[in-house]
Design brief:
Elements: E1 2-6, H1 10-22, E2 26-30, H2 33-42, E3 47-51, H3 59-68, E4 74-79, E5 93-96, H4 101-117, E6 122-125, E7 128-131, E8 136-139, E9 142-143, H5 148-159, H6 167-174, H7 182-197, E10 203-206, E11 210-213
Length: 234
Amino acid sequence: MRVLVVEDEEFLADMIVSGLRRAELTVDIAHGSRAALDRLRRDAYDVLVLDRDLPGLHGDEVFRYVVEQGLPTRVLQLTAAGPDGRQEPGADDRLTKPFAYEALRDRVLALGRRARSDQPPVIERAGVRVDTGRRLALRDGRPLALSHNEFGVLEVLLRAQGTVVSGDELIEEVWEEHPSYRTNAVRVTLGTLRAKLGDPPVIEAVPGAGYRMGDGAEPGGGGTAADVPAADPR
């Protein structure tokens, strides 16, 4: 599950992020609305924890961007107590400050489950088609015989819609038990997956960042999926 926390109070933001990471969630942070919008344009998130009362560009503008773009991201608003602590219409949930961290964590997890349940069962990009309900994967109509981890990695990359996914994120999303040698496990799985997908290559390695699904038109300029480490140490 991937979460974006938007909060200008650095102490509170760090507390939220540290707690959610201890719950084994992948969490990014933005201290203002403009930074949040930049993140949302680049990456896909399951849940957005959004402080409504941000300085400068109001937090409501971030929420409206999510709605206008039709993003599947679920929104948990953080609001001040009192008459101004109203909820933006359409927000998925709200917490009034001050709040207990456990309450926030439970609501984030619940919203994340809802976001995942809303995802389409069939996803497709560059001629690669995955039916998550029937556990089927095809490339240009050709069935692919994939292992459990290969199928999971392919699904995560497809759902990212061309954005970069780090090696650590793949481990957290796919592997039931986190392997000790994180980078090697991802590289080996991606190497076999890429071989099964065939040419032209659709999995691109982004040096120092991770992997993404290309459009299949040209080989990725960042190297093959098996030759660039993708670990994202925190």
